[in-house]
Amino acid sequence: MADRLVIRGGTVVDGTGAPPRSADVLVEDGKIAEVGRVDAPGAREVDADGLLVTPGWVDVHTHYDGQVYWDPLMTPSSWHGATTAIMGNCGVGFAPARPDQHDYLIELMKTIEDIPTETLRAGIPWGWETFAEYLDCLDRTPRAIDVGVLVPHGSVRMYLMGERGEKGEATHAEIAAMAAMIGEAIDAGALGCSANRTLLKDGLVPGSFASDEELLAISKAVGRRDGTFQTNAASFYGPEEWVGYEAETDLMRRMSLAGNGMRITFALIEDHQYPDRWRTILSRIEAANREGAKMRPQVLARPLNAIMTLAGRHPFDRMPGYAEATAGVKNTADLAARLRQPEVRESILSVARQALAERAWFFDTMYEMTDPPNYEPETSQSIGAEARRRGVPSMDLFYDLMTAGAGEAMFLAVVANYAKGNGDTVLEMIQHPDTVIGLGDGGAHCLGLCDVTTPTTLLTQWVRDRTRGPKLPVEIAVRELTSTAARAFGLYDRGILAPGMRADINLIDLDRLRMGTPEFIHDFPANGRRLVQRARGYVATFVAGERIFADGTETGARPGRTIRKQPVREPA
Ligand SMILES: [Zn+2]
Predict the structure, then answer these.
(1) Are 441 and 292 in the same domain?
(2) Per residue in 182-214, pLDDT tens?
(3) How much distance in Å is there from the Cα of 22 to the middle of ligand 1?
(4) Can you give the CATH number for the domain in which 117 is found?
(5) φ/ψ of residue 508, rounded to 5
(6) How far is CA 53 from CA 311, 315, 497, 503, in A?
(7) What's the CA-to-centroid distance between 268 and ligand 1, angstroms?
(8) Angle between helix 102-113 and helix 153-161 axes, rounded to 10 deg
């Protein structure tokens, strides 16, 4: 006798983009058996009257590669309705890994993704060398939600090329070996491959300078297996003279075509200095996709931002003299008091005035965070605008606000997607047929970002509350978080509430849904800190029919599995 769960009388938003409808959902043995009217009672019945019933979210861009070993809930993703998380992004990760490269891979993760070294050292069990062994280790780790993994090009390169992997040019034989190893990883279950071509001042990811030949050979191996290629494009943004976005877009087009229509995904943002460029890039993508490429840029469903606060990251924390001036403080309140001392304030601000002289605009796109956070602030609410009203320098005002009281104020430093000073660009990006919502970076940038909570912004701010322009229809928001995301990574068994699909389901009280303000918690190994945001209003989350959260409280269920890529083509 099948284990029957009936979710009764909810408002089903099924993930296809179809309008909401009132229906029951029958779940049998972890899969959806029926969506419609279910007369027979289930062994378990859940009353969903007044609630949205949606597929669980697919969080396509995370860095839980280490966290997966100490946090079975994979938070904050699961707190915000994710039932699948994809890791191994951005060319960095922990498999394959030679025993003498563990420290290197941890340092690389720290450099690129800002996850504390001590936390990773203490938290990763290292019971593997090959990618297949890594997946086997994941299988033995209990968890609440599903994980899919991309094999990082950077790790493969270091494994095969040793120290030369960082910057060296691969030989023909090494390229063939890399393509073969990535192919084997997908055969073992990887969803695809990730690479990173971002040019960073203080560190390069192995493969940043990989030749076209290398990337095309890998693309063939990935595309042949219906894998997805996630990459960070080099030089998409910044001044005209050093960007190569035309060449880079064209390279990704060729990679997709070489992989016989391989899916390739990468970040697309609106650069405030060059606000038209994202449209130019997108129109090239449209043209390439008409020609048979499958380019699907990832967009962030809110303005690209960093969180600035005294206890985390802020503009003064790495300036000369700051460490000395704040030595010996015991806590954030103490730090705030020290920084308010007139001679300390003046010495730090005088250094900062020089250092930030060119970046006065920074405070014009900086906003004090409210509760709940507002991701579409009026530009008149910026620190710069307020400083002009008060007739004081904006940096001084920011300093004083940040160090006031116990030093708990938080600020949203908006760095992209907000050139118009409203959410129109973000909504346009989300609704474009070639994009997918991503870039949440779950598990990474522990002290300065929490964009993994974006699904809740999508529902509260863009679907429910927006007053500054058109809202986003709920069925579009849900479709983008579910089926669009799943398909972008070759997952065809989830993301839609329909018979035969996995019973990954959210029950959401949209009226009550609320985003928390960012807060620091100390729950990482080696007492590591991280910035999280919680949410209220997710009434239940089910993974394969098992309830993992009941009104925000975890149930202890661990139905999450490691996804093994099935060698199938996308259904027509
Ligand atoms: Zn990333």
Answers:
(1) yes
(2) 999 999 999 999 998 876 544 478 888 899 999
(3) 38
(4) 3.20.20.140
(5) -125, 130
(6) 38, 42, 9, 11
(7) 13
(8) 150
Calculate how far, in angstroms, residue 187's C-alpha sits from the geometric centre of ligand 1: 23
> DSSP of 361-382, one letter per residue?
GGGGGEEE--SS--SS--GGGS
Q: Which two tokens stand for residue 486?
A: 């799943």
Residue 241 in this model has a pLDDT that exceeds 60: no
For ligand 1, the distance from its centroid to the CA atom of residue 491, given in whole angstroms, is 20
Start-to-end CA span in the chain (Å): 34
Cα of 441 vs centre of ligand 1, distance in Å, is 5
Report whether 11 contacts 18 (CB < 8 A): no
- Establish how many alpha carbons lie within 13 A of residue 442's alpha carbon, considering only the half-sphere containing its beta carbon: 31
In tens, the pLDDT along 103-143 reads 999 999 998 888 999 999 999 999 999 999 999 999 999 99
State in Å: Cα 446 to ligand 1 middle: 12
| Structure-block tokens of residue 298 | 């990832």
**Separation of alpha carbons 199 and 453, rounded Å:** 27
Side-chain-facing half-sphere of 352: CA atoms under 13 Å:
21
Predicted pLDDT of residue 239: 54
DSSP letter assigned to residue 271: B
Tell me: pLDDT of 250 over 80. Answer: yes
What's the confidence (pLDDT) of residue 279? Answer: 94
In the reported structure, the alpha carbon of residue 434 is separated from the centroid of ligand 1 by a whole-number distance in angstroms of: 20
C-alpha of residue 329 to centroid of ligand 1, in Å: 33
Q: What range does the domain containing 275 cover?
A: 57-303+419-447+457-472
The total domain count for the chain is 3
Q: What average pLDDT does the chain have?
A: 93
Q: 254 and 363, same structural domain?
A: no
Are 399 and 414 spatial neighbours (Cβ–Cβ below 8 Å)? no
Query: Is the Cβ–Cβ distance between 65 and 93 less than 8 Å?
Result: yes
Ligand 1 centre from 529 Cα, in Å?
Answer: 19
Helices (H), 75-164: 102-113, 117-123, 131-139, 153-161
Q: Which residue has the higher pLDDT, 570 or 518?
A: 518
Ligand 1 centroid distance, CA of 468 (Å)? 30
Distance 439 CA to ligand 1 centre (A): 6
Q: Ligand 1: distance of its center to the CA of 229 in Å? A: 13
Inter-axis angle of helices 342-355 and 394-402, nearest 10? 130
> How confident is the model over 44-71, as a mean pLDDT?
97
Inform me whether the pLDDT recorded for 1 exceeds 50.
Answer: no
Query: Could you tell me if 195 and 251 lie in one domain?
Result: yes
Is 227 inside any structural domain? yes
Q: Looking at residues 350-371, what average pLDDT do you find?
A: 89
> What pLDDT does 166 receive?
87
Higher per-residue confidence, 196 vs 367: 367
